UniProtKB/TrEMBL annotation:
This is Acetyl-CoA acetyltransferase. InterPro entries: Thiolase (IPR002155), Thiolase-like (IPR016039), Thiolase_C (IPR020617), Thiolase_CS (IPR020613), Thiolase_N (IPR020616). The keyword Transferase applies. SUPFAM superfamilies: Thiolase-like. The keyword Membrane does not apply. The gene is atoB. Residues 263-384 form the Thiolase C-terminal domain. Signal peptide: none annotated. It comes from Nonomuraea glycinis. GO terms for molecular function: acyltransferase activity, transferring groups other than amino-acyl groups. It comes from the Bacteria. The active site is at residues 89, 341, 371. Belongs to the thiolase-like superfamily. Thiolase family. It holds the Pfam family Thiolase_N.
C-alpha cells in the first residue's frame, strides 16, 4: 500500500494585525517558509514536483497564484509549478490533502503543501447576504444568485451568525466560552515560555514568536466586553484573531524517502472532508469528525492530540460535547483565539503544531479539523513515526 509521509514542517511566527509581519509582502512571507523548509529538509528543491498553497481573498498582493509567486520569490527553480487552493479557512489543510493524494496516487513523489495570508494588508471579506434593496440582494458572494435564493432565501449568511447559532443550538454559555478563551491564552503563553514552538518557527523580520497571546488578559476583562451583535453571547474575546503568517510542509513517497535519504516524521493515516448547513456554517467539524472516525475505524480516544481551529469558542465547545474528547488533549498549546488565524495559512500551521506536539509527548495519532466557509470541514489523521 502506498504511503504519504510528512518529512519536514515549518512556519513563520503568527503576527498580530498591524504587528511585526504586517508590512511583509505575502509572497515574501511564503518564500521565507519555503526556503526554510527546503533548507531543513536538505533535499534538492529541483526535485519538488508541485507547490500547493492555501490562500483566502486572493486579491492584490495575494492574487496571481500566490503559491507560484512564493516559490519564485524564494529564488527556487522556475520549472517547479504552483497552485493556489481556496477552501476558506481550511485552504492549507486542503493543500496538505491534495499533496498527500498526489503522493498516494503515485503521480508525484515530492510535493510541498502550505499556505500564506497577510490579513493586515488584505482584510477578511466577510460573507453576508443579509442586505437587500429594491433590486434584491446586493451584498456578499451569493448576491444575485437565483439558485441560492431559491434554496436559502435572503437570510443573513455570516460567520458571526453561525457562531451565535452554534452557541444557541448546543447551549454554550458566555461564561463557558470565556473560560475556554482564557485557557487558550494560558496554554499558548505556557507553550511559548516552555519553548514548545521553537522548533517549528522560522523567525522573520525580527519576529521570533507568535504575537497574539495576551499575558495580561483576565476573565473579568472578558466579561466587560460588549457582544458582537445585540443580545448575542459572542464578544471579540471569543473569536480568533486577525493575523499574518505562512506555513509549509514537505510530503514524500516511499520512493522519494529512499532516493533522497529522508527521515519520515509521520505518515498520513486518513484524509476526508464533509459539508453541512451553510447558514450555521461553522458546525461541520462535528459530522466531519464522526465520518472520519467511522471511515478510519478509530475512536476519538485513539488520538493523543487534537487540533481544532478556534475560529470561535462555541465551535470547539460544541465539538467537545458531541465527540466526548478529552479537553486536555484538544489544542494543548492554545488555539486561534490566542495564537491567531491567518486564514490561508492556519490549516498548515495546525498540522505543523500537531506534528511537533506528537513528537514532544511521544503520542502516536493526531487529528486535525477546522470549520470552513460554506459549512464545510476537513479532517486529517496523522501517525507519528
Amino acid at each position: 500500500m502506498a504511503e504519504a509521509y510528512l518529512v519536514e514542517a515549518v512556519r513563520t511566527p503568527v503576527g498580530r494585525r498591524g504587528g511585526g509581519l504586517a508590512g511583509v509582502h505575502p509572497a515574501d512571507l511564503g518564500a521565507h517558509a519555503l526556503n526554510e523548509l527546503m533548507t531543513r529538509a536538505g533535499v534538492d528543491p529541483a526535485a519538488v514536483e508541485d507547490v500547493i498553497f492555501g490562500c483566502v481573498d486572493a486579491v492584490g498582493p495575494q492574487a496571481g497564484d500566490i503559491a507560484r509567486t512564493c516559490w519564485l520569490a524564494a529564488g527556487l527553480p522556475e520549472h517547479v509549478p504552483g497552485v493556489t487552493v481556496d477552501r476558506q479557512c481550511g485552504s492549507s489543510q486542503q493543500a496538505v490533502h491534495f499533496a498527500a493524494q498526489a503522493v498516494l496516487s503515485g503521480t508525484c513523489d515530492l510535493v510541498v503543501a502550505g499556505g500564506v495570508q497577510n490579513m493586515s494588508q488584505i482584510p477578511i471579506a466577510y460573507a453576508s447576504v443579509g442586505a437587500t434593496d429594491a433590486l434584491g440582494l446586493t451584498e456578499g458572494p451569493f448576491a444575485g444568485s437565483r439558485g441560492w435564493r431559491a434554496r436559502y432565501g435572503d437570510q443573513e449568511v455570516s460567520q458571526f451568525r453561525g457562531a451565535e447559532m452554534i452557541a444557541r443550538d448546543w447551549d454554550v454559555s458566555r461564561e463557558d466560552m470565556e473560560a475556554f478563551a482564557f485557557e487558550s491564552h494560558r496554554r499558548a503563553v505556557r507553550a511559548i515560555d516552555e519553548g514548545r514552538f521553537t522548533r517549528e518557527i522560522a523567525p522573520i523580520e525580527g519576529v521570533t514568536t507568535d504575537e497574539g497571546p495576551r499575558r495580561d488578559t483576565t476573565r473579568e476583562r472578558m466579561a466587560g466586553l460588549k457582544p458582537l451583535v445585540a443580545g448575542g453571547r459572542l464578544t471579540a474575546a471569543l473569536a480568533s484573531q486577525i493575523s499574518d503568517g505562512a506555513a509549509a510542509l514537505l510530503l514524500a513517497s516511499e520512493a522519494a524517502v529512499r532516493a533522497h535519504g529522508l527521515r519520515p516524521r509521520a505518515r498520513v493515516h486518513h484524509l476526508s472532508a464533509r459539508g453541512e448547513d451553510p447558514i450555521r456554517m461553522l458546525s461541520a467539524p462535528i459530522p466531519a469528525t464522526a465520518y472520519a472516525l467511522k471511515k478510519s475505524g478509530m475512536s476519538i480516544g485513539d488520538m493523543s492530540a487534537v487540533e481544532i481551529n478556534e475560529a470561535f469558542a462555541p465551535v470547539v465547545l460544541a465539538w467537545l460535547k458531541e465527540t466526548g474528547a478529552d479537553p486536555a488533549r484538544v489544542n494543548p498549546n492554545g488555539g486561534a483565539i490566542a495564537l491567531g488565524h491567518p486564514l490561508g495559512a492556519t490549516g498548515a500551521r495546525l498540522m505543523i503544531t500537531l506534528l511537533h506536539e506528537l513528537e514532544r509527548t511521544g503520542g502516536r495519532y493526531g487529528l486535525q479539523t477546522m470549520c470552513e466557509g460554506g459549512g464545510q470541514a476537513n479532517v486529517t489523521i496523522i501517525e507519528r513515526l
